[in-house]
Amino acid sequence: MTKKIAVVLGSKSDKEKLKIGFQLLDEAGVSYKLKVISAHRNPDKLRSYCKKIEKDKIDLVIACAGLAAALPGFMASYLNIPVIGVGLKGGMMDGLDSLFSIVSAPKGIGLVSSGLGENGFINAIIFALEIMGISDNASLEKVKKIKNKFK
């Protein structure tokens, strides 16, 4: 059974910032769904999408956002599947604010961060595949393929 990842971005412009990670996902044949929804600008749409994620049998979410980065925590508060938050660079603090927002989630949310920017996104992909690899050998093979690119 193929495991599925949802990659959710807070802004359309984030896709360009993360293009190497998307290339890795495509090259490794990882099944993912990409969605762009701002937690601040459209919380109702994001709430609806969280409900759809469960119906679509998504196994894991990678949520990427900059500035105040509410997206990962918002999603983790609604979902009962792993959510990996990636802070994106930009704004007055060059991404540090987004990283602090993610790692400062209150107890009971279950949100983790894999870092900042493109490197954080690549690490989120690897971590996601490792988590899914616990019950899916195909995910383990994909993570090995990706990790080998960085040796």
Task: Tag the structure with descriptive keywords.
151 residues; alpha/beta; Rossmann fold; five-stranded parallel β-sheet; 7 helices; globular
CATH C-level class: Alpha Beta
Count up the domains: 1
User: How many individual β-strands?
Assistant: 5
Percentage beta strand: 15-25%
Largest beta sheet: what is the strand line-up?
Answer: 2-1-3-4-5
DSSP helix count?
A: 7
CATH architecture: 3-Layer(aba) Sandwich
Overall SS class: alpha/beta
Largest sheet: 5 strands, parallel
How would you name the oligomeric state of the polypeptide chains in this document?
A: single chain
Give your account of this protein's structure.
This protein has 151 residues and is an alpha/beta fold. The protein has a single domain (5-148), classed as Rossmann fold (3-Layer(aba) Sandwich). Helices cover 48% and strands 19% of the residues. The protein is built from seven helices and five strands, in the order E-H-H-E-H-E-H-E-H-E-H-H. Strands 2-1-3-4-5 form a five-stranded parallel sheet. Helix 5 links the parallel strand 4 and strand 5 (111-116). Helix 6 runs antiparallel to helix 7 (137-148). It is globular, with a radius of gyration of 14 Å.
Topology:
Elements: E1 5-9, H1 14-17, H2 19-28, E2 32-36, H3 43-55, E3 60-66, H4 70-78, E4 83-88, H5 96-103, E5 111-116, H6 117-133, H7 137-148
Write a short abstract of this structure.
With 151 residues, the chain is of the alpha/beta class. Helices cover 48% and strands 19% of the residues. The protein has helices at 14-17, 19-28, 43-55, 70-78, 96-103, 117-133, 137-148; strands at 5-9, 32-36, 60-66, 83-88, 111-116.
